[in-house]
Amino acid sequence: MLIEELESLVKKVQALKSESNQIELKAACQGAPKIYDTLSSFSNQTGGGIILFGIDEQSNYQLCGVYDAADLQKKVSEQCLQMDPPVRALCTATKVDGKAVVSAEIQEIEMARRPCYYKGKGPNQGSYIRVGDADRKMTEYEVYSYEAYRKKIQDELRIVDRATQADIQTRYLDDYLVRLSVAKPNLAALPKERQLQLQGFCVNGEPTLAGIELFSDYPQSFFPRLCITAVVVPGTEMGDTGDNGARFIDNTTIEGTLPQMLAGAISFVRRNMSVQTIIDRNTGERKDRTEYPVMAVREILLNALIHRDYSIHTETAPITVVMYRNRMVVENPGGLYGRLTIDTLGTVSADTRNPFIAGAMEIENETENRFSGIPTIRKEMKAYHLPEPVFENERGTFRVILYNSALDIKEKPTRSLEEAILHFCCQPRTREDLAQEFSHITKTYLMTGYVNPLVERGMLLLSLPDKPRSRHQQFTTRTL
Which phi and psi (to 5°) does residue 117 adopt? Predict the structure, then answer.
């Protein structure tokens, strides 16, 4: 960081009186603070972060200056070496208004080496992630998810207790082997036991999770919650009730093999979607149009079944489908896998969490397995003149949201979320007002991903600038 950039950053932080997901403040006027948690969280997040020493958050963000710039940088380097893998901090020191300040830039580490943790506590106690402006200790599952990618753990291949090979010797397997003989004749020519072994359905003659989920007569007898729960809510929020007081218009649990659950979930969505009849002005042809494009719905559900986490940490968590009055939300356990991020979703070939299940579903003619699902969803929503699908990845959950507000893109272009927030905040709005208006995304993600950056850029003004975290805080769009 250049000296001029550090000086500018100090003034910006003082003006905003706030930390962020990439800025951590430490006074360091009495000595070197412990920063292991922040070193971990910044190393484990995309983009890393900056630790800024010499500003006292507890004294209204006033400059207090560090005790000794040279010694502080030495102590920071020493703490960086206590991390696994070791962290390399790029430090910059200068004086602002006669007070010494130091910045430590922490780069993100590559996905294959995460999580970065403090060696004195070990990975389960010393691994952190950044949530808003705070460092939060990773859950056991979050640590495991990194470990699973790094060690290439394949949970779909774990042997199922209580199951025998007879549990997968079903008509579903027979039908699959017929399709296999056409799709992969060389593999189909091998002995049946060898085929099952090579495709991950058995290990040493014992059925795997993949085999049970694909071919068992009733997979839920082994994994009761590896299913899909689906509900229709009469309003726009969970807890809204209909005229008769009912909380759900439809409520069901969808079970069976993976292909059966896919078919059942699609059927649930179809029967609960509204259907419009459209007459073509030129041909007079009548055409029914569903509330959401069925192809997009199918791809979302298929991706959830194939790419969900099948580890012991999530085997009690079902895939959920919730249809609100204005949107449909699908959640599956297990966040994005490997190097994939929200920004690269649908634009690069992704690491596959469950390659054997994905391959089998391709043989079943349920998927092409060519990473075309996300582009298809986006394309179908655009063809329906509906808003872009929203993808969210947080705390071990991947979420897809489709909106049913039919907009004529040529006449009424869809505003970006930032524009919508600025328009909404033409009148002063509280955090709760914003959370209610933009309920399709979580409150935390709304604030850290959109509202706070708008504040930092000066596009939203705070009603209480000296108390940025106050529950009475209101946000107003800056008028030019």
Answer: -145, 165
